[in-house]
Write a structure and sequence with these properties.
This protein has 17 helices and 8 strands. By secondary structure, it is an alpha/beta fold. It has a domain of 69 residues. It has an 8-stranded mixed beta sheet, with helices on both faces. Helix 2 crosses helix 3 and helix 13 runs parallel beside helix 14. It is flat. About 13% of the residues have low confidence. The chain binds guanosine-5'-triphosphate and magnesium ion (MG). Guanosine-5'-triphosphate (GTP) binds next to helix 11 and helix 12.
Length: 420
Amino acid sequence: MDFNDLFIQANDCVADVIQRYHLLTDQEKYLIVGVFSSLVGLLLLFKIARKRSKIEKVQDISADELPDGFSEDEAAETQDEQVISSTENVKEEVEKSRVESKPTVDIADVKESKSWKDRLSLGLSATRVGVWGKLENIFSSKKIDADTLDQIEELLYTADMGHEIVDDITENFKKEMSKSESDFSNFKSWTRQYLKGKLEPVQKSAEVSLFQYTKNSGLKVIMVVGVNGAGKTTTIGKLATKLNKQGAKVVVGACDTFRAAAVEQLEVWCKRAGVEIIKAGSGADPSGVAYDTLAKAKSLDADYCILDTAGRLHTAQGLMDELAKTKNVLSKVVEGAPDQTLLVIDSITGQNALAQAKEFNKALNLTGLVLTKCDGSSKAGNAISMASSLSVPITYIGVGEDVEDLEIFNTDEYLDALLG
Ligand SMILES: Nc1nc2c(ncn2[C@@H]2O[C@H](COP(=O)(O)OP(=O)(O)OP(=O)(O)O)[C@@H](O)[C@H]2O)c(=O)[nH]1
Ligand SMILES: [Mg+2]
């Protein structure tokens, strides 16, 4: 029996009871009213329980992760499953990327003996072996046909190359296939040239003052942004250490006032680096901290002012607006500040990295990308799509958690490590 039949029968039953109501005894009438009231009561209890579970679900998602304009109560009140599920989806995505970002190769053992190039090469070995190695096998052992072309396309996607790049590369292979004497022996050098051609024009715009301190060149202001756990604080720690070693005076601002632990983490790095940190209590206005930090850097005649910010989802409009506000405040202290707005990207993020970069770029006009966690399980192919499609250069690349694990991005070194 389906729901409709049940509904019709219940309807008939109620109509029957109404028709015969005057024939019923008082006892039967009380019984019917009692049953009806209990049913209504049960229904109400069910509704209250459902709403409570929604509120708990929403409270479980931190207030800052709710879509813009939703307070916890409002989100629960709307009873909009989409609000909850879409936020949870993004939460899961970030969580997944955090879990996946744990390197599968422990490079601690080889750090002592390996050069930077070797460590980068080790870090990108997953793509080199898993994608380019497999492509090499395809080209050397099989006749290239439509099926193998599909395989090639799939492999390129697993390297997080992005649609445009995958399309260009496969188009080139198709052209080669259509020739009577197709030759794929040089596919790697063609691909390398193609990728270099995508990166090089963008990389030219990378600002040298980011890497090399020059005496008396004035205060440089660097704001560092990104999603949760991308490696912002660690990158700032490494950068501050490097610049301080070159003789620069560095002041760091702890604008991540969201978590007390974030300030402590930055303090440890600054202490180690021997640079000054400006901080405020948990929950303080991040724009205020940014303002104070830059004012202090200016008064100390510092060479660099680096601002750490709280991680946020690129989809959380309210938090993105807050970041834009922090950025705008800086120009009130020093005209034209910040000189650099760097987006830190966890290289394991995959195709989602491009979406992240687009949103951050839209809100903040990025001047550079920092690619972290290019060690172990990194695929890192998304770097090329991001830099070329946004025309934002990759400034630094990180392959671990120590100071020496951050280096200036070099196109040739990167392509060597990626393609082999
Ligand atoms: N393996 C590896 N781990 C890194 C790298 N960079 C950062 N990490 C680690 O990634 C974790 C998160 O780094 P953080 O610097 O705290 O990231 P964050 O972006 O400041 O995080 P939030 O402030 O929470 O948004 C830490 O455990 C770092 O040690 C890297 O290049 N390789
Ligand atoms: Mg941080």
